[in-house]
Design a protein that fits this description.
The complex is a heterodimer of chains A (867) and B (142). By secondary structure, chain A is α+β, with helices and mostly antiparallel strands. Chain A is built from 21 helices and 30 strands. In chain A, helix 16 runs parallel beside helix 18. The longest helix of chain B is centred in the N-terminal third of the chain and has 23 residues. Chain B is elongated and about 75 Å long. Chain B: Keywords: Cytochrome c-type biogenesis, Heme, Iron, Membrane, Metal-binding, Signal.
Amino acid sequence: MNLLVGQIGHLSVILAFAAALVAAYSYFQASRGRALGEEDTSWLRIARVAFFVHGAAVLSVIVCLFNIIHAHRYEYYYAWSHSSNHLPVQYMISCFWEGQEGSFLLWIFWHVVLGFFIMRFNRKWEAPVMAVFSGVQLFLVSMILGVVLGGVKIGSSPFTLLRDFLVDLPVFKLNPNFVPKDGTGLNALLQNYWMVIHPPTLFLGFALTLVPFAFAIAGLWKRELTAWVKPALPWTLIGGGVLGVGVVMGAYWAYETLNFGGYWNWDPVENAVYIPWLVLVASLHGMVLWQKRRTGLRTAFALVIATFILILYATFLTRSGVLGSASVHSFTDLGLSGQLFIYLGAFAVLAIVLLVWRWKEIPISEKELTAYNPELWVFVGATVLCLGAFQVLFTTSIPVYNSFMGLLGIKTNIALPADQIAHYSKLQLWMGVGVTLLSGVAQIMWWQRNDKTTLVNSLAAPTMLALLGTALVVLLVRYNKLTITPAYVALTLAGLFGVLANFGTIFTLLRRGVRLSGGAVAHLGIALMLLGILASSGYSNIISRNVSGLLYSREFTEDLNRDNVLLWRNETTPMHGYQLTYTGQFLEVPGVPGYVDKQQLFRTDDEYKAVARAPIASEGKTYYKTGDTLEILPENTYYRVAYKNEKSGEEFVLYPRAQVNEEMGGLLASPAVKKFWGHDIYSHISSVLDPRKEKTWSEAKEHVLSVGDTIFLNDYFAVFRAIEPAHETAGLNMQKGDLALQADMLVSGERRQYHAHPVFVVRNRLVGRVPDEVEDLGVRLSLNSIDPVAGKFTFAVSTSQKDYVILKAMEKPFINLLWSGTLLMALGFGLSVWQRGGKGVLTTDATPAPEASAEAGNRAIRPQPVS
Amino acid sequence: MKKTHIFVLAIIAVAAAIVFSTTADASVYVGFGEARQRAAEGNVTKVHVVGKLPRDAQKRPMGLEYDPLTDPNYFAFTLVDTNRVAQRVIYNNPKPQDFDASEQVVITGSMKGQIFMADNILLKCPSKYVKKDLKGATASVN
């Protein structure tokens, strides 16, 4: 029992909290009543020291918490509930942020890192911006403070001892120093490489939204109503890229790991990140409009502030327990809802009051925008994004309305739409149409002088090509006997137009410098993503339909979605263009590539260990010999399903898995995906014979046989070939003087023959029997007795339910467009940051360049695009 | 009227349309009694029903019908809602794993004749949230 590390950790949390308080107050004092850049140096010095202390304390908290997990200190609740002895080191990192406290810590950590960047590179803005930063840190650290003040519990400490958490457990009354031998383990769903990098990416994205917010607040406070945009813009760009990539990473994880049949389920927790991302991207457009064209400053202010408030709202939604059970991301409700609500309320009120107070002073553009101004279309695009965000927000908040009305004493019973996917899709689709069309138009117009002729010239080509392409797509869809709704046609048209227009823009810009093309590349990526989503989700095709011609007679004769097929082990089933064969259960063995057949493993009492019953080889290399003990990963059972394309004859194998996962309610299926150039084949198990339950065997039937006799076992033909000294004695622990004999029974299955070797052991005149099982065939044999005189052998034969799986499989056309579009989008954001990199983030802002006027000058002299 | 005003009006119109469409799509939590009433009135919108499984003395759920060997896409069970109204439910999908252990079941769907056709099942399992059970703790104390 190590109490010290927890005490150091808890003390560090308190220190971090106190230091954040000092830093916030000192930065505030340093800047109060003074103009930007003329801070009170003595307060500033105190503030810096305080923030450094805060940073060091946060690091210390992280080190302590990681030590608790890494050293398996199960006296702490956090380690006990999130880790276990068998957890590989890389997943210890994921258990760090599996719990609420750890994920808050991750978020706090990123704020510290970003704070240091601001202190180093944005000296002029340091005091007011860092005052906001420290204030936010104060609230965040309070969430993990874990102290009781005046009977009120503030925050939940990750250093709580198990005995303080499970107070009522009798064991602690007997022995307060009791430490469990093992933890309960990391949710096996999260034992996935994406869960190592997805949360840090997402929280970095969350943290990055604080930077423009802090600059905007500083700008409002210091009456620097225009100058804040320039230093904040690169951070918004990075934030947009990181958060966007983080969201798609989460989607990819869900696609690979969960079994709802796709990558996006409109789960409230997914929406909680998607909403602020949309508004963040809209705010980015507002900021660019101001920075480049001196318009839209009020929009930029409002949206930057809205983004941060939405991040806080998302935090409130996902962590306060208000969503209840409507989510796959089940954060434990730690009773922090009051604290979270205060956090949300404090910053929302502060920011909105400040904005309203200064609203009239924020400069607006004198010129009236016309349809020939690209600014207008960028502005409309940002509005469309905000409306899209509003739509998701309004529906996602339905559980909040119920809770709120409940607080007022009114009982309401509104529920989320019964078919959420249809609800969101039908509305978000139009946002997609608007965004891609506008992005194409605005990108073309942004880089050229616009009048009727140039506009018609430059828009004609992409419009004509997009129309042609759409016509072709509609024909192809019809040709494949599928239907296409008018909404899908619109999205195809918009998507193609977006791709072509942005592609054209990139082409034109290449001559003027690759760096400038960041926006066009990102927009091209978005257009491709939308096309990918349309194809893969709109035309996701279930191929596991029952094609046996057998109709089940039930109450309903109407055409129902019978989306699952039953596959018997080793029997081939035809299915919508494929021949499927389920051939057995496999396990993962660390060190051996691929999967190992369960029939080759003799399980031991230790569920993580097994004995090899046959040489374990892969691609010609033998990893374990018969009788070797090896480590296995028992949580996941992989079901080997062989696919054969009836048309092309192409064959491949998928291993969908079922996972024993007590936390998520027992047995959980994860899909296996086969990637092709133009589509994915995605399949998962819908139901299996529970691998945790012992098989039920029929009552044993005795057969008396002589060598050479044949019998029928569970409808299979079998020959009793010989009796011989036992050689498979791996699990028997044979000693000198023991006698072991085995029968050799050759059973003919559907595909191959099996040797069954029931063993008969005599040790100290006591008889032991080791039955043998042919798992493929559901047969168990035991050699019950030997009559050496008559040469007769008595066998007991029992049979069991033959193994099967119920499988659902679907085809996802052109899903690669979504992933490659995401990469392009990230590249576009990267290019844009690079373009500004020299001017923003990584320089001290000593020489404020008159960027806008220089830009205007450039526009006047630069050559016109050809078409 | 300035262009800005038209633009603002357009935004308000779209926002109103979104609110309206959400209200139209939003479902409700009801009991089976009301679900039957709705069906009788010809209202086919899908509803949410919260309920529990009836259990026998050994805490085993009663009335589950799932035989994958005959039809893997047919699962029937009886659910008792919060007003203690029992109703036969059919779900044309495989039986969710660990359905038997669930404490609470939320289904969405609508009545068709005497049967509630569910198209979605949400389970709340006892172990899903806070870990409160220490396995083997009492056994290892000496």
